[in-house]
Amino acid sequence: MPRMFIISPIFICAIQTFVGCISYPEASNESRMELPSHTDTERIYEYHGYTVSYDETLRIPVWVAYELTAEEANGTVGRSGKNFRPDEKAKVIQADNYDYRGSGWSRGHMAPAGDFKWDETAMWDTFYYTNCCPQDEKLNNGSWNVLENKVRTWARQFGSLYVVTGPIVGQNENGKIGAHQITVPDAFFKALLVNKDDSYYGIAFLMFNNSTTQRLLESYLSINDLEKISGLDFFPAMDDAIEEKVEDEVDLKFWNIR
Questions:
Q1: Which region holds residue 142: left if phi is over 0, alpha if psi is between -120 and 50, else beta?
Q2: In 3-state terms, what secondary structure has residue 141?
Q3: Nearest to 28 by CA among 169, 236, 238
Q4: What DSSP state is assigned to residue 192?
Q5: Has 109 been annotated as catalytic?
Q6: How far apart are CA 12 and CA 20, in angstroms?
Q7: d(CA 213, CA 143)
Q8: Residue 3: what are its φ and ψ, rounded to 5°?
């Protein structure tokens, strides 16, 4: 178990209490492996290469999900000249540039631009505010960036992997920013699943939304533990006979985390 996140029953209960503003009832059957359980009442947006569940009350995504292949991880499309903007097709309250100006928080991609260098439209689609959270700048450029790069390395190594990323609002210690009252999360997560040689391997990461350096070895946890903290059900399309085992174990040797 990673040192930074000791998942005690008390800790889980506390986290579940302050993420309790969002509930996730059972969803209909899904064939797409990357999608968490969700309902027809959630605001789901399909972009070029990834899917978002957006919370209009919080003004941030609940999760983003996609499959990242080795070929996609080797894309060459640049991000120069691309900036965040509201998604006019999504008829919900969203952030705009003024919300972030002078706030002290960076614009944090949930589906990172670096995972979508394989296509110009896909890259542009990551710059919607429906895919953005207020994120500590040092985290964004530091530990979180290390994790995002590691995900691309794993995609190249394993051929593909399924990625789910999102915020943990927690106690909302840093409040909200801007005229649109954009919620600042307390932490961020990634849940990853690989199908390699007819076997599944899963791992999750949780990083606090602050400037402290957070090593991968200190921030990993099982998918089951992340489910208890987030209230989400990850990878429900996986065969039930193997889901519990895969989501309860972390093979550090497979993931090459030291």
A1: alpha
A2: helix
A3: 236
A4: E
A5: yes
A6: 12
A7: 6
A8: -65, -40
Q: Band of the pLDDT at 13, cuts 50, 70, 90?
A: very low
Q: Using the 8-state DSSP alphabet, how is residue 257 labeled?
A: -
**Angle CA 215–216–217, to nearest 5:** 90
Token pair 């989501």 in the structure block, residue:
247
Q: φ and ψ at 134, to 5 degrees?
A: -65, 125
Q: Which of 38, 48, 109, 180 is catalytic?
A: 109
State how far the Cα of 139 lies from the Cα of 144, in Å rounded to an integer: 6
pLDDT digit string (tens) for 198-240? Answer: 999 999 999 999 999 999 999 999 999 999 999 999 999 998 8
Q: Whole-number mean pLDDT of the chain?
A: 90
Pairing of strands 199-208, 43-46: unpaired
Question: Over the stretch 47-98, which tens digit does the pLDDT of each residue have?
Answer: 999 999 999 999 999 999 999 999 999 999 999 999 999 999 999 999 999 9
In the numeric block, the tokens 């997560």 are attached to: 189
CB 47 within 8 Å of CB 256: no
* Tokens matching residue 163: 């990625």
